[in-house]
Design goal:
With 273 residues, the chain is mostly beta strands. It has a single domain, classed as Beta Barrel (Porin). Helix content is 14%, strand content 37%. It has five helices and 13 strands. It has helices at 10-14, 41-53, 186-192, 199-204, 223-229, and strands at 18-21, 24-28, 61-69, 77-87, 91-100, 103-113, 150-156, 172-178, 210-219, 234-239, 243-244, 247-255, 261-271. Strands 1, 2, 3, 4, 5, 6, 7, 8, 9, 10, 11, 12 and 13 form a 13-stranded antiparallel β-sheet that branches. α2 runs antiparallel to α3. The chain starts with 9 loop residues before the first helix and ends with a strand. Residues 35-112 form the Acyl-CoA thioesterase-like N-terminal HotDog domain. This is Thioesterase family protein. Residues 132-270 form the Acyl-CoA thioesterase-like C-terminal domain.
Length: 273
Amino acid sequence: MNAAAPQLHAFDQAISLRATAPNQFTGSTSEAYLNMVGPFGGVTAATLLNAALQHPEVIGEPVSLTVNFAGPVGPGEFEIEAVPLRTNRSTQHWLLLQRQDGQVVTSASAFFATRRETWSEQQIACPEAPAAASLAALPLRADRKWFGNYDFRYVSGLFDPTQAEESSDTESLLWARDNPPRPLDFASLTALGDIFAPRIFHRRQRFTPAGTVSMTHYFHADQAQLARVGNRHLLGQARATRMHNNYADQIAHLWADDGTLLLTSTQVVYFKE
């Protein structure tokens, strides 16, 4: 009797795509990654990147990804158009469009490159933090299904709407990884870069209608470096610099547990008061 095939991790199921024509893929939203309105934005971004990663013409590895959330992604099937706009000897530029019912719901651009070994320096130091294993995991929340797919261990800056007073700043510091653990790759790093709640939640310590409008990731590592991380926790830090007239920014970093910076992310977020 043949052994049963191993079951795909929920994340791999969520970003799964099927090629249907040149530059065309189809996929379906995952119940496991539902958020307030539609899927968790990080898994949507990872799905778009996955279209380029599995495209037969892809070269190199992701260096940057910009995702614009034009509208809510509804339940069910969607199409992704992945077009390599220009390919040079060691660089490649991509246009990625996600459509439902003939309308673009998410657009993205990606830049891939073949990295060459050069002089390197890390300008920003990894924050000091107790080991992930020494901290309690954040309890699961029934109202946010996607929370169950991550192991969150907060060092500081936990959003707590039961607090009577507002916080003095917007910074959060926490360890995070896929739940159950999954080896890190570019797709999962993309999703992890969007795990931080809107900064206005943390500043005001209360729920506020809010959502990411545009997000850009800068990947500082190659696949070999991500493979060395394995399935261990990453240390994430996020803060805002200004919230004004319905929009706020967010700047976030993700480090490996050896202090290596893997990702820088910036967002613009809509909020309503």
